[in-house]
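A reminder before we start the practical. When you read a complex entry, don't treat the lines as separate problems. The point of joint prediction is that each chain is placed relative to the others, so the output describes one connected object in space. Small molecules and nucleic acid strands, if listed, are placed in the same frame. In the example below there are four entries. Take a minute to note the order of the lines before looking further.
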Amino acid sequence: MKILIYNEGVHDKEDWVKKVYPKGIHGALAEALSGHDVTVTTLDDAEEVVTEERLENTDVMLWWGHCAHDKVSDRVARCVADAVRRGMGIIFLHSAHLSKPFRLLMGTSCTLKWRDDDRERLWVAAPSHPIAAGLPEHFELAHEEMYGEFFDIPHPDETVFIGWFAGGEVFRSGVTFTRGAGHIFYFQPGHESFPTYYDVNIVRVIRNAVAWAAPIRRTGPLVCPNTAALEERK
Amino acid sequence: MKILIYNEGVHDKEDWVKKVYPKGIHGALAEALSGHDVTVTTLDDAEEVVTEERLENTDVMLWWGHCAHDKVSDRVARCVADAVRRGMGIIFLHSAHLSKPFRLLMGTSCTLKWRDDDRERLWVAAPSHPIAAGLPEHFELAHEEMYGEFFDIPHPDETVFIGWFAGGEVFRSGVTFTRGAGHIFYFQPGHESFPTYYDVNIVRVIRNAVAWAAPIRRTGPLVCPNTAALEERK
Amino acid sequence: MKILIYNEGVHDKEDWVKKVYPKGIHGALAEALSGHDVTVTTLDDAEEVVTEERLENTDVMLWWGHCAHDKVSDRVARCVADAVRRGMGIIFLHSAHLSKPFRLLMGTSCTLKWRDDDRERLWVAAPSHPIAAGLPEHFELAHEEMYGEFFDIPHPDETVFIGWFAGGEVFRSGVTFTRGAGHIFYFQPGHESFPTYYDVNIVRVIRNAVAWAAPIRRTGPLVCPNTAALEERK
Amino acid sequence: MKILIYNEGVHDKEDWVKKVYPKGIHGALAEALSGHDVTVTTLDDAEEVVTEERLENTDVMLWWGHCAHDKVSDRVARCVADAVRRGMGIIFLHSAHLSKPFRLLMGTSCTLKWRDDDRERLWVAAPSHPIAAGLPEHFELAHEEMYGEFFDIPHPDETVFIGWFAGGEVFRSGVTFTRGAGHIFYFQPGHESFPTYYDVNIVRVIRNAVAWAAPIRRTGPLVCPNTAALEERK
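Here is the predicted structure of the whole assembly.
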């Protein structure tokens, strides 16, 4: 599969993140997806890389962003949202809940509660969903940012994971959506300070999600055709 | 209940619509909602009428638009979408499927197939939904514009009506969504050339929908608060 | 509204429950629903009380059971399930997840994990659902039995509450379903050892749920009619 | 994949069906699934063939039944329903809407309207669902039994197809459900008098559905374990 990873890549230039992700978050994600045809882009070159042509030739995109959502151009955001509607799969990771393309696709504020450094246990709430294949009934992250309800998203197609936080909150941590012909998965773990993307269960979720999000069909321009009647009118 | 009806009011100035709706489509809708506290706005004054303050004091809004979607300012569209997310109910009628606020709230293209003047039969697919209260199992509109699948919307919370068209198409004609704290109903019938909004069953659907969409709670600003832990961390 | 409360009433005869619920769990529920026309039945007289005629004249039923699910006759279970399909609302409380009528209506095993005496915090995951009206964003029960995922139920129409347990689990604690013309709410709190049904938030949930579950329409016999064509066949 | 086809095989012994399906409906379905490891059973030997062991070694089952639903033993029905809950996929065809295992899994009456010999057009309402892969936006069956709304089923996970009938009805003709770990697809076309199961689009739907319904995981006994706390209680 052809995969395009967008990581804004701003935190990744700081020492505290370099210690955890020496090749950047995008580097860790690319390694998690070894065996696929992976391209990486960051805020530095997204304007050139993220084009309609590129996305037509992308099966699944991954999106990680946090402090530079506003620096992504509206053109890029619309281009990604339209590609999803026309069939490209996409996986929004962690703080991408406030990214421009996620909000364009959800139609809600995508707000939530948060707090630094908690401990999370993820429970599988849909054991037969392809994204949960091969996972234990729950698994734990010793350090993760708390994201808590109410999470302002539309009703998900499926709630695959529910997160439990030691500090007292719950969160719909893994949720799927369909928009047009595109499959969308939002997955909450993945704070830049913690080695989440090396965790064996997290890697499995991401690999499963990429397989699940692969396009079933690509559709043409999104327009409203005036069509002839299929039946003779009486 | 406090109801605000937006009708773009452009077709309504032409003779062919005046014959059907001498007081405008907004006039017919206002009559259908007699007994409520109804305010009407059209494209002519929407910029002044549709304000954050007004919408905070509106329980349910109705939106009819067709040929002048682009003339609605982005400010008005965002203001309506945000009011819905914060709890105001809204009913999108007929060609409002391409209106700015509906598309902002759906996140999809909202495209469909269409054709002038067909005959429609509406089937109740959710007989115990409050919007279907008091309706027969199906009812008919002798003249209605055909809107056909594929209708590019997210999975509805409920599909209350499915439309059958003599010309050979089907359509999810009445669908509900939740966005934030707001209840949304999209209802397909209501072409400007036909007396749809005088039909007794249509009036009943609209009255039911207004009651169903009434706010359960109004929420404050849509932000992401950093919250203290509820539990002592170990 | 006409409400019928079924409580198996077996634990209620033991001293450890009498201390908490001197009038029985049914007594506490009846008080929570003061102002309604409430009838109470227990395992002792359910065979006589739960009849087709009675249920046709009942708006909403509540069901509490735990150790005597098997003592409920198949006739009573089928009678309740059919009444729901034909429009009666029903609220299944706590260990009623394994009751005969709940399992008949769900089609799944309704199994879950459990453990005595934990501390629960309930989070509102659907703030604009009528059942969540007037509630804070979360509330707490100092003592409650832990029920944990995976909860083997069909995808709920809405997940209104998600429970957090101090012992490390999460649970879809308040979920709605539609079966036929009937509205169903399952609500997890309510162990016989704890004064859950006196809690002000719990009482509010139950009162809200009863209002929400009220019948929209009652349907006739559930059969498959052979119908004449509505259109002339070509 | 290991596939088990159940066809009651009663009509298939009559001349009017033999003309259409000389090898029985099961024969046509087995041919449609060429390339898979297919076993066939009919009412004559279902009691011996449909065992817990057999179903544990079956990936996906197909079920066709019409006039002999009652002759299927309760043991067989429960065995199939439990296997689905534990992960086996299943596809219910046409009049299997009233079969014992389908009703056990749905929890509703599964009733609908019907009429002999109409013309049906199937519209794809979920173009990116795996079951719709490779299909045109609509396709037609010159002769099919009419099944019409209201179809008394729980809210489907996805409505993949909506049927239009020349006689004036609509139907949710292809719908998916999850029960426990099992994937379920109900597909309305397939009356015994018509050569539906030779139609190239129908064959594609059935092949797609079998691939989609394949088990993601098989679960053990469906019980409620008492579990130790994962956290130290304070």
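Discuss with your neighbour: The helical segments of chain C are 15-18, 24-32, 46-49, 52-56, 74-85, 100-106, 200-213. What might explain this?
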